Amino acid sequence: MKKLLQNIKAYQAVFVILTAAVMITIFILSAQDAEKSSDTSSVLTRIAVRLIDRDYDSESPEKQQEIWEKASFIVRKLAHFSIYTALGFFASFSAGKRKLFTLKSLGVIIFGFLYAVSDEFHQNFVKGRSCEFRDMMIDTGGVTTGMIISFVFMGLIFLIARKRKKNTSGQ
User: Fold this and answer.
1) How many CB atoms lie within 10 A of CB 97?
2) Distance (Å, rounded) from C-alpha 122 to C-alpha 30?
3) Around Cβ 35, how many Cβ atoms within 10 Å?
4) Count of Cβ atoms closer than 10 Å to residue 32 Cβ
5) pTM of the predicted model, to two decimals?
């Protein structure tokens, strides 16, 4: 354990804390009952509705309901994907420097998938919420995307550091 702690870099500790913060946020949002969850997403749904159909207010009530339901579905699924993208990004940095196709990278994805499973299981016990396999897959896709984005960032950081080192050693 002592050796493991010695190998953890300061930036990794920061990203472990950020990973935990995202996990806590997900847990809190998942603990909201269906009505509160709907209220939370309705602000973004209103914006989406206006983007989807600029004539929304002049549509028939049936058409408005149809548009609202589609927009609400999209907003909710994008929320799942987005927050799990953040989880994957932070968890990936927590795992440290590595290549994309390694056991550590697979571990980040498995970690995200298992957290998504636990999140959906948790929602099964919340009033008006349900456990959906589709959401687990959306969440896992978000984690994978976040991890890939982190590799882009790591690559850019590496290139900048290498360029600075080359410039300072060449003078």
Assistant:
1) 11
2) 7
3) 10
4) 18
5) 0.86
On whether the CB atoms of residues 158 and 123 are closer than 8 A, the answer is: no
Give the SS3 label for residue 8.
coil
Q: How far is CA 24 from CA 1, 20, 68, in A?
A: 25, 6, 29
Dump pLDDT digits (tens) for 57-107: 899 999 999 999 999 999 999 999 999 999 999 999 999 888 889 999 999
> Contact 95/108 with Cβ under 8 angstroms?
yes
Closest listed residue to residue 67, CA positions, set 54, 53, 47? 53
- Residue-range domain boundaries for the chain: 2-169
SS (H, E, C) 83-118: HHHHHHHHHHHHHCCCCCCCHHHHHHHHHHHHHHHH
Helix (H) or strand (E) holding 21: helix 10-30
Contact between 155 and 93 (Cβ < 8 Å): no
